[in-house]
Structure formats: C-alpha cells, structure tokens
Amino acid sequence: MALSSQETEQKIIDAMKDETGATVKTWSTRLKKCGFEKRNDMIKWLKTEHGLKHNYAAVAVGMHLNGGKPVYADSGNLLDNQLKGKDAMRPLYEAVEKAVLKWNPKVEVHPTKTYVSFRGKREFAVAAIKAKEIRVGFDLGDAPFSGKLEKAKSLGAMPRIGHMLVVKEKSDIGAELTNSLKAAWKRIEG
To answer: Is 126 among the domain residues?
Structure first.
C-alpha cells in the first residue's frame, strides 16, 4: 500500500540528516540566506548547490515556507480546512467519496491542501470542493469531452487530470461518474 503524503513527508524528515548531512532546521537557516524567495528556485538551489535529491529538497523548502512545520502534519484536518465556510458542501462531498469507495473499495482517499486525491497505483481522480459545487476530475488521457464530461479547470491537481464532472447535487452522482472512474482507473492500473 502506498504511503500517505504525511507518512512520506515524515519518512523524509526522519532520514534528512543521514541523507543530506543536515537537519531540516539547518536547511531552513541556509534557505533564509540563499537569496531566493520562490519555491522552485529554492529547490533548484538545494539540488544544484548542495546535491540534495529532489524529494529532500522539496520537503526542506516546503517546511521552510511553512514556518518550520511539516506541510502534511495535519492531514486529518486537511479536508476540514477545505470545507471551512462551505458547510453545505460536506454532505455532497461525503456522497461523492461514498460513491467512489462503493464502486471500488481499493481506492485510497488522500486529502491535500486544495483537493482530495483518489489513488490506486497513482492519482487517477480528484475532488475539488468549491463554494457551490464539487468538481470531480479524472485522468482520462485524450478521451473526448462529451455529455457532462468537460475540460478540467480550477482543480489544483496534476495536469494529467484533464477531464471533470461538476457535481451540484446528489442526483449528479450516477453512471457518468462511475464510468469515468472506471476508465481513469483502467488507465493507471492496466
């Protein structure tokens, strides 16, 4: 079973000193003096100037920009944070998640800061909770857009999540959602 984002981050934090020769706190001190403000510039600097592997550089920079705290430490609260001010959307999100897990109980559900990731071997679908709707995105490759299946927008997910269905009420959760989930799952699981 794949590690959650929180578990992966913690594993990297635990190995940071052995793998890089310095703790996250030490890297943060160095990052304050590096002269870069943008995340990607900092990661590149750690990789090129200090030889860090990408994952170690990304965790060090992420924690530096998060006030020294792990980015995923509160993963249990990530969903609650997404639903702040959108209380009416909770039952609708729960219905979407229930439909996903009813279709395939093997799916792993991972809330992130901006969306909920549905994973098998890798992410194949996401749910982005908006004020008045939930946008369910899918990795369907170059499949055509048809019916309610449209080009993905404002999902906050990886670019390969190129299709989406907009769910505004429970009646929008049906065969089209299930068929899109099946097709996206088939792409990643073979």
So the answer is: yes
* 20, 43, 65 - which closes a domain: 65
Beta-bridge mates of residue 164: 137, 150
Cα separation values, 177 from 127, 145, 152, 165, 170, Å: 12, 13, 14, 7, 11
Q: What is the DSSP letter of 122?
A: S
In this structure, are residues 77 and 103 in contact, taking their beta carbons and an 8 Å threshold? Answer: no
Range of the domain at 45: 5-65
Pairing of strands 150-151, 163-167: antiparallel
Which three-class secondary structure string do you get for 50-86?
A: HCCCHHHHHHHHHHHHCCCCCCCCCHHHHHHHHHCCC
Determine the Cα–Cα distance for residues 17 and 117; give it in Å rounded to an integer: 30
- Whether 70 maps to a domain, the answer reads no
- How do residues 42-71 score in pLDDT, each as one tens digit? 999 999 999 999 999 999 998 998 888 887
* 39 and 13 within one domain: yes
| pTM tops 0.70, yes or no | no
